[in-house]
Sequence to fold (143 residues):
Amino acid sequence: MLENSGFSGASAGHSGIYSGAGELTAVDDAGNQTTLSPHNFSLTSPSDIMAWSFYSRNEDIGQQINVDMLKAVRLIEDVTGEKLVYQADLDGNSIDTTIDEESLLGKVKNFSEENIALKQQLEEQQKQIDELRALVEQLLRKK
Fold:
């Protein structure tokens, strides 16, 4: 068990872990810190009560990053239609989190098929218009 302690600073040739504000953080010898426990949503808000984050801070470049990983994976599920997140209660009973809507990939395929059908329909209508135009021109020449 680690007690909450502050980051004491980088130490050449040493890396470690420390606990601060209830979050477990790894630090390398350059002072770069990566939160190992997935609860740090300091730059964004969690998308779900079970959301987990990636948070990292780079002292050398003076930047930090925060990613809602559950949201990222859910978006991948939406695009591909593949189930990637599995949830269960603490007894191991599955919590159904099926993807209710058709995947974005499926929607694109359907739109593509509809587009092809509409294009064929348009081509057929253009043929009919051309035939009608030819008939009208033929009738006008007979007058």
About this structure: The helical segments are 69-80, 104-142. The radius of gyration is 30 Å. The chain is about 35% helix and 20% strand. Residues 5 and 20 are 5 Å apart (CA to CA).
